[in-house]
Every structure is written in structure tokens, then in C-alpha cells.
Design goal:
Distance between the termini: 35 Å
Strand order of the largest sheet: 2-1-5-4-3
Number of strands: 5
Protein name: Roadblock/LC7 domain-containing protein
Shape: globular
Number of domains: 1
Oligomer: single chain
InterPro entries: Mycobact_SerProt_Inhib_Rv3364c, Roadblock/LAMTOR2_dom
Pfam families: Robl_LC7
Order of helices and strands: HEEHEEEH
CATH architecture: 2-Layer Sandwich
Length: 136
């Protein structure tokens, strides 16, 4: 992935321009790493992606606790002594996670993550190729 296949990594690096943010990863629902910020190694990003997929699955399984088992999961925030981990839906089958220090402005991070999700959605959706689907 660090060999040029981390094509969306620059967008994650851009998100980390917020004060007190640390790392960012983009992952698939099954825990595969899709992109990572420059500040985190590929190996660590892959390990975190697997964990984030499990975290997202656990969060979705508690939807009924909000009153409706069919409600849509949008975001999970975990708080630790040394900071926060934000995990948000980033499109069909994709999730974005950012870690930050305990001094981060949580509202700003949540807002910026939603902006980034919009940008990522445009980048991850490829337009149809000209002539695709026409009989040969």
C-alpha cells in the first residue's frame, strides 16, 4: 500500500491538519485496510482496521438499544485516558477512523469527518466507462 496503492492517503493526511489529531485509516466492512495517513505504518494501520471493523459491528448490534433495531449506525466514539477514537460510516461498506489526543475539539473532528466522508465518497465512486455495457 505504501508502494503507490495508498491513493486516498493524501485525503486522510489532509484531515489530520486539525489540531490534536494523530492517525487516520479508511477500512472496508470486513476489516481490510483501504488507505492510511502518513503518520501510521501500514502494519499498524492494518491491525487497527481489523479492530475497527469489529468495533463497528458491535456498535451496530446495539441499535435496538436506541429504540429501533433497523436504525442506521453513523458514528462511534471511544474515550481513553490519552484521547479518543472516532469511527464513522464512509459509504457502503467503508469506514473512516481517526484518533486524537484528549485535548481535541470533538465537535470539530466530527464535523470534519463528515466533510471528509463526502469527499471520499466522490473519490471512491468511479464513473461508468464510456462504452461499458454495449454489445460487442
Amino acid at each position: 500500500m505504501d508502494d503507490g496503492t495508498n491513493r486516498l492517503g493524501w485525503m486522510l493526511d489532509d484531515a489530520l491538519r486539525m489540531p490534536e489529531t494523530r492517525y487516520a485509516i479508511l477500512l472496508s466492512a470486513d476489516g481490510l485496510l483501504m488507505a492510511h495517513s502518513e503518520r501510521i505504518s501500514r502494519d499498524e494501520a492494518e491491525r487497527q482496521a481489523a479492530g475497527m471493523a469489529g468495533l463497528q459491528s458491535l456498535a451496530r448490534s446495539t441499535a435496538e438499544f436506541c429504540g429501533n433495531a433497523d436504525t442506521t449506525w453513523r458514528q462511534t466514539v471511544n474515550e481513553f485516558d490519552d484521547g479518543y477514537v472516532f469511527l464513522v460510516a464512509a459509504g457502503p461498506g467503508a469506514y473512516l477512523s481517526v484518533s486524537a489526543t484528549q485535548r481535541v475539539d470533538m465537535e470539530t473532528v466530527s464535523f470534519r469527518l463528515q466533510e471528509l466522508v463526502q469527499r471520499l465518497g466522490k473519490e471512491m465512486t468511479s464513473p461508468p466507462r464510456p462504452g461499458a455495457g454495449r454489445p460487442a
